[in-house]
């Protein structure tokens, strides 16, 4: 049974909020609505695209009947994203390659729609590093329901597992799935660190490798 590390995507491996902001603002501006600033957009992120669209609609008093069109337009932009506005956090790429070299099985459990998540992985050349990818629209349930995390874990052989994420949603998911959770503090969390249940906390991927050693011993 191989050791498993499952990552959230937005705010955990990549700082993608500028790209999400650009997609939403292009669609909203195109319809004559005022664009959002980055902190406001970040406050909409974490519970998947449908929730983000609903919050952005509410903020601009958009008619409910516009929902599907707005959702589909933003999704179309996401799916074609070239990653120009998305930045991996420092040390992420080396960390992922090191983990794979050490024999860990890696997965992604994100609330971003699955195809858009796969697009991000392709853009950075990371698609072959992850053996299982589940998005917010892969199943009927999304995080913080434990089902998506459990599905990735099962797909990777259900061995010893660590989950890594940046948000309230991830912390709740880990509790629901009874998974060990490492909280990355530089993403899109809304509350203070101590308000989120976590087993480990880190702000820097150089420090993360120490957590991996602590959880799994020295080998993958
Ligand atoms: O799409 C979202 O709402 C957040 O995406 P994440 O689960 O990768 O942080
Ligand atoms: Mg996240």
TrEMBL record:
<keyword id="KW-0460">Magnesium</keyword>
<dbReference type="InterPro" id="IPR006439">
    <property type="entry name" value="HAD-SF_hydro_IA"/>
</dbReference>
<keyword id="KW-0119">Carbohydrate metabolism</keyword>
<dbReference type="Pfam" id="PF13419">
    <property type="entry name" value="HAD_2"/>
</dbReference>
<keyword id="KW-0479">Metal-binding</keyword>
<dbReference type="GO" id="GO:0006281">
    <property type="term" value="P:DNA repair"/>
</dbReference>
<keyword id="KW-0378">Hydrolase</keyword>
<dbReference type="InterPro" id="IPR041492">
    <property type="entry name" value="HAD_2"/>
</dbReference>
<dbReference type="InterPro" id="IPR023198">
    <property type="entry name" value="PGP-like_dom2"/>
</dbReference>
<dbReference type="GO" id="GO:0046872">
    <property type="term" value="F:metal ion binding"/>
</dbReference>
<comment type="pathway">
    <text>Organic acid metabolism; glycolate biosynthesis; glycolate from 2-phosphoglycolate: step 1/1.</text>
</comment>
<dbReference type="InterPro" id="IPR023214">
    <property type="entry name" value="HAD_sf"/>
</dbReference>
<dbReference type="InterPro" id="IPR036412">
    <property type="entry name" value="HAD-like_sf"/>
</dbReference>
<dbReference type="InterPro" id="IPR050155">
    <property type="entry name" value="HAD-like_hydrolase_sf"/>
</dbReference>
<protein>
    <recommendedName>
        <fullName>phosphoglycolate phosphatase</fullName>
        <ecNumber>3.1.3.18</ecNumber>
    </recommendedName>
</protein>
<comment type="similarity">
    <text>Belongs to the HAD-like hydrolase superfamily. CbbY/CbbZ/Gph/YieH family.</text>
</comment>
<dbReference type="GO" id="GO:0005975">
    <property type="term" value="P:carbohydrate metabolic process"/>
</dbReference>
<dbReference type="InterPro" id="IPR037512">
    <property type="entry name" value="PGPase_prok"/>
</dbReference>
<dbReference type="GO" id="GO:0005829">
    <property type="term" value="C:cytosol"/>
</dbReference>
<dbReference type="GO" id="GO:0008967">
    <property type="term" value="F:phosphoglycolate phosphatase activity"/>
</dbReference>
């Amino acid at each position: 049974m191989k050791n498993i590390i499952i990552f959230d995507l937005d705010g955990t491996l990549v700082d993608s909020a500028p790209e999400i902001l650009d997609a939403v603002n292009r669609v909203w501006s195109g319809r004559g609505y005022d664009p959002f600033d980055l902190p406001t957009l970040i406050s909409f992120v974490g519970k998947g695209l449908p929730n983000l669209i609903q919050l952005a609609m509410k903020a601009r008093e958009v008619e409910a009947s516009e929902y599907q069109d707005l959702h589909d337009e933003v999704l179309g932009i996401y799916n074609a994203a070239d990653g120009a506005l998305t930045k991996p956090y420092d040390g992420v790429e080396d960390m992922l390659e090191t983990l794979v070299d050490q024999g860990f099985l890696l997965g992604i459990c994100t609330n971003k729609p699955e195809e858009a998540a796969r697009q991000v992985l392709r853009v950075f050349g990371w698609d072959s590093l992850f053996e299982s990818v589940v998005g917010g629209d892969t199943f009927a349930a999304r995080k913080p329901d434990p089902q998506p995390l459990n599905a990735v874990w099962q797909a990777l052989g259900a061995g010893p597992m660590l989950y890594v994420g940046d948000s309230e949603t991830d912390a709740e998911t880990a509790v629901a799935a009874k998974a060990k959770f490492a909280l990355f503090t530089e993403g899109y969390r809304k509350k203070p660190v101590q308000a989120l249940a976590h087993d480990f906390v880190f702000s820097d991927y150089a420090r993360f490798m120490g957590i991996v050693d602590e959880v799994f011993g020295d080998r993958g």
